[in-house]
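User: quick one, fold this
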Amino acid sequence: MRFNNKVFDINTHPYLFEDVCKSKEDLDFAIKITGLYHNGLAAMHEVFARLDCTKIDFSVLSPLDLSSAYGRKLATNEQVKELVEKYPDYFIGFASVDPSEANAADALRYAFKELDLKGVYLFPALQNFCPEGCAPLDDIAKLCIEFDRPMLVDCGCSPYPNLTSKYSHPLQWEEFIFRHPELRICLSRFAWPWNREMYMLMLKFRNVYTDTSIVYFDDPKQMYHQMFTVDMGPKWLDRSFRHQVMFGSGDPGLEQIRQLNAIRNLDMREESKELILSQNALEFMGYKKDMRWVHD
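Assistant:
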């Protein structure tokens, strides 16, 4: 399989790519939403150079449908499909839909069936919907299960400005997860600062994943040390959660290279690092079918 022994960044976004921002209006909107006023447009050769330097083999790209909250999209499903077709050696594509829009299920079916996108990305705090009690999410989950696709959800503290936190709490998803035990779902960023609630959900539900796109103080090395050896027991990640954590940077917004280097330097077994950097993403995306939470 072409993805064996590869490093994946499960949580990235093409909001500032030159192939996506085709106009000043597109760029201005992306900067307004992300707050990345000093980044500017990313030339594609710069994106590839950074991935090569970091030794990330595949970046999983997610757009964001902000139709209800902002009247437009922050990259589209079709643009992600074009990026994957144009640069298949670098990108895997997810879709996004807006649960508040009446056509969300139809749009997701089209994204899975016609565009062959490999998962769906949701950002409740930015899309301005409450996960708990959101009926359209059940239709989205059923489509994910039908097409064997995962769901990636932005949880916890985001680096983006002007967001309230009430829709970012991981417990907003608990009843939903109860209803859909076959759904592979990632609640990103270890849901920090609600990381203890996140640990609890991973203990209860083995189909629940998280990623490492934590908004850090100081630098990723110090933040991961605090999270993984102080807030958690020093061996929790290595012994208890190593099958449920994936490397994700949340790019753009955080420092991909420093994040990955911090993961590579964690004090844990090399096979646990391989799970975080590679094998868990394969399982989450459905490329690896011998899933331990189904067959053990």
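User: anything notable?
Assistant: The mean pLDDT is 94.
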